[in-house]
């Protein structure tokens, strides 16, 4: 299956193979859900180019959500249909999101004590600099000693951060991402999938094998990744996790794999879907 719409902005054309003129779409306007909008319709053809075989005269294809309205032109022989995929709100600028998320992931591999030291150092950096400058005017020797101590502490912290970054390597997002729907992180415990358009992060999906959710390490990795993604999106992690626990409990008592549960927090939607072998959590605005 070829990718249909990388960077799908402006006019998009999908050609339906065959010579029949019969062509319909279920709607004239589509609103994306999760990472894409699913365009559906009927066509008396054997294939929908780049996508899937037409089953009993029905076709569908997916258009990645984008920050602008998208016009999609569909043709089958001499028949034409045009639909609009409405714009959606971005989650964040991708590079900014990736930088903040990677910092949180790296910090999660530091001992709690070191995490607090790092947070304190970041908060008091400007104040400490002013104090050293003031001390240098009254007691240069003491200021020099204090500066050396701070430099030594900073070097130690940097070394600890480097070690933590190595441990977190497989879970870090790439600093740059091309346009389209793509997997950013893939491990045995979880996959982080994103839709990026024009450098904007339009949506995220956290995909977890259900078998991993049955192991302690899998549960831990899922909880950490879920919480850090939510935190970077400025959702309230405690609220989201508490609500998710209820969704998980309800899912265990209901074997249906098609139900979608939505959690809201600070303007972020977390749509949760269970299949027989995976848990999907879609994050959008």
How would you describe the overall organization of this protein?
It is a single chain. The protein has 285 residues and is α+β, with helices and mostly antiparallel strands. 36% of the residues lie in helices and 30% in strands. The chain has five helices and 14 strands. The strands form three sheets. Strands 8, 9, 10, 11, 12, 13 and 14 form a seven-stranded antiparallel sheet that branches. A four-stranded mixed sheet has the order 1-6-7-3, with no helix packed on it. A three-stranded antiparallel sheet has the order 2-4-5, with no helix packed on it. β6 and β7 form a beta hairpin. α1 (94-107) crosses α4, α2 (112-138) runs antiparallel to α3 and α4 (216-232) crosses α5 (237-253).
What's the topology here?
Elements: E1 11-16, E2 23-25, E3 29-30, E4 36-43, E5 58-64, E6 70-76, E7 79-85, E8 92-93, H1 94-107, H2 112-138, H3 140-167, E9 180-186, E10 191-197, E11 200-209, H4 216-232, H5 237-253, E12 260-265, E13 268-274, E14 278-284
Parallel strand pairs: 1-6, 3-7
Antiparallel strand pairs: 2-4, 4-5, 6-7, 8-11, 9-10, 10-11, 11-14, 12-13, 13-14
Helix pairs in contact: 1-4, 2-3, 4-5
Average pLDDT over all residues? 84
State the end-to-end CA separation.
29 Å
Radius of gyration: 25 Å
What ranges have pLDDT less than 50 throughout 5 or more consecutive residues? 1-13, 15-20
> Biggest sheet: strands, sense, closure?
7 strands, antiparallel
Structure class: alpha+beta
Order of helices and strands: EEEEEEEEHHHEEEHHEEE
Shape call: elongated
Number of strands: 14
Measured as a percent range, the helix fraction is 25-40%
Number of helices: 5
Strand content: 25-35%
